[in-house]
Design a protein that fits this description.
Helices cover about 40% and strands about 15% of the residues. By secondary structure, the chain is α/β, with parallel strands linked by helices. The chain has three domains: about 230 residues, Isopropylmalate Dehydrogenase; about 130 residues, 3-Layer(aba) Sandwich (Isopropylmalate Dehydrogenase); about 35 residues, no CATH class. Helix 1 packs parallel to helix 13, helix 6 crosses helix 7 and helix 10 packs antiparallel against helix 11. The longest helix has 20 residues. The chain is globular and about 65 Å long. The model has no long low-confidence stretch (mean pLDDT about 95). 2-oxoglutaric acid binds next to helix 4 and helix 9. Its EC number is 1.1.1.42. This is Isocitrate dehydrogenase [NADP]. Belongs to the isocitrate and isopropylmalate dehydrogenases family. Homodimer.
Length: about 425
């Protein structure tokens, strides 16, 4: 496809998706990347340098990523025009090249601009937000035994209140919605109808099933002992309660799970290893205290969009903070890797923040490509740099005796530790 502002590297090749959704990865794949707003300018080049070094060390020049810049957010408005936050060709490039990575993008609070991060997920139907949470030795943590936190979050990425269906208080539109609810639906529980904004929370069986299916399959493929459906179904019965119900039904119907002691928990044998996988559920508020008190009880987490957003940052804090928490947004054919944190605007351009989150997101990307030798080197470099206490400000302020490195300095320390 011909692009207007995107320069496709002449010596790179597109990753192809096979009919069974596996990837056909050439040795010179083109990887589209969005630099990101705020600290994107600091962390993205460091991530690229670390990943290039890991690939070089692993494959000695036989394999190389060909980075291709694509645009979204403030940089896009400078290039394409002041109202163009997410150009069509950015979406087209991610679709064409199948695997991409992005820095964080700003979403102003209130006002009319909706989240570009959410828009990317919705437009590309990247319905899984995958966020693994694990401990690296030496990382500062508020827990006594942080190594017991080892979870993988599957956050539903396309529905829930993130669908952005809402109307502002005081507008004719919200009045129409409230009139409809009161007059035609018999609703009499809107406490202050004249000054309410209204938001809608769609949660479907299809959306739930495709997410829970991925979470259970991940538990099978990675020999994990449990999948926990996290919801607030006691209050939101037909959305979060239905998510739980549909999740259990799917586990029984598609994976042959059987109820334990009359249910609703159920379990089945991993077809690959024969070990038992338990499918259970937890109510979101109780879950947030359980992860602090008994993190070892939880492995794979399947949850709705808003819960997943909260849980991601809370769990990240247990093992060092959002500065090193990685993630990916995935459909069956496209994967867009991204840090869990945002644009941290007060640190933008200072070469200060931790690039670990984006680097570990790229490490997930290498694994997704099947380039495990390079991915392993990234983990090795990260583990050793942290264990050596050569860290960025966020860790340095919490670790006695640590040496303070800049964002780029940490990238270099990580590279120096790779075999
Ligand atoms: N996927 C995305 O692109 C996301 C975008 N956003 C957007 O980002 C903007 C800012 O959001 P905000 O709520 O401030 O959240 P941020 O995640 O940007 O920052 C919150 C705090 O987290 C810490 N932090 C974040 N990133 C790093 C890092 N790389 N290294 C070390 N510490 C880090 C800093 O803590 P401290 O002050 O203690 O140093 C920072 O002040 C908003 O517009 C929001 O919508 C938010 C989340 C995700
Ligand atoms: O899009 C945003 O501005 C925030 C998104 C977010 O917090 C997340 O995806 O974790
Ligand atoms: Mg978030």
């Amino acid at each position: 496809m011909a692009y207007e502002k995107i320069a496709v590297p002449a010596d790179g090749q597109a990753i192809a998706v096979n009919p069974d959704n596996s990837l056909n990865v050439p040795d010179n794949p083109v990887i589209p990347y969005i630099e990101g707003d705020g600290i994107g300018v600091d962390i993205t080049p460091v991530m690229q340098k670390v990943i290039d070094a890991a690939v070089e060390k692993a494959y000695g020049g036989e394999r190389r990523l060909h980075w291709m810049e694509i645009y979204a957010g403030e940089k896009s408005t400078r290039l394409y025009g002041e109202d163009v936050w997410l150009p069509d060709e950015t979406l087209a490039a991610i679709r064409e090249f199948s695997v991409a990575i992005k820095g964080p993008l700003t979403t102003p609070i209130g006002g009319g601009i909706r989240s570009l991060n959410v828009a990317l997920r919705q437009d590309l139907d990247l319905y899984v937000c995958l966020r693994p949470v694990r401990y690296y030795d030496g990382t500062p943590s508020p827990l006594r035994e942080p190594e017991k936190t080892d979870m993988v979050i599957f956050r539903e990425n396309s529905e829930d209140i993130y669908a952005g269906i809402e109307w502002q208080a005081g507008t004719p539109e919200v009045k129409k919605v409230i009139d409809f609810l009161q007059q035609e639906m018999g609703v009499n529980k809107i406490r202050f109808p004249d000054s309410s904004g209204i938001g809608i929370k769609p949660v479907s069986r299809e959306g739930t099933e495709r997410l829970v299916r991925k979470a259970i399959q991940y538990a099978i493929d990675n020999d994990r002992p449990s999948v926990t459906l996290v919801h607030k179904g006691n209050i939101m019965k037909f959305t979060e309660g239905a998510f739980k119900q549909w999740g259990y039904e799917l586990a029984q119907r598609e994976f042959g799970a059987k109820e334990i002691d009359g249910g609703p928990w159920c379990s089945f044998k991993n077809p690959d290893t024969g070990t038992e996988i338990v499918v259970k559920d937890a109510i979101a508020d109780a879950f947030l205290q359980q992860i602090l008190l008994r993190p070892e009880d939880y492995d794979v987490i399947a949850t709705l969009n808003l819960n997943g957003d909260y849980i991601s940052d809370a769990l990240a804090a247990q093992v060092g903070g959002i500065g090193i928490a990685p993630g990916a947004n995935m459909s069956d054919t496209v994967a867009l890797f991204e840090a869990t944190h945002g644009t941290a605007p007060k640190y933008a351009g200072q070469d200060k923040v931790n690039p670990g989150s984006l680097i570990l997101s790229a490490e997930m990307m290498l694994r997704h490509l099947g380039w495990v030798e390079a991915a392993d080197r990234v983990v090795q470099g990260m583990s050793r740099a942290i264990a050596n206490k050569t860290v960025t400000y966020d860790f340095e302020r919490l670790v006695p005796g640590a040496s303070l490195l800049s964002c780029s300095g940490f990238g270099d320390a990580l590279i120096a530790q790779m075999a």
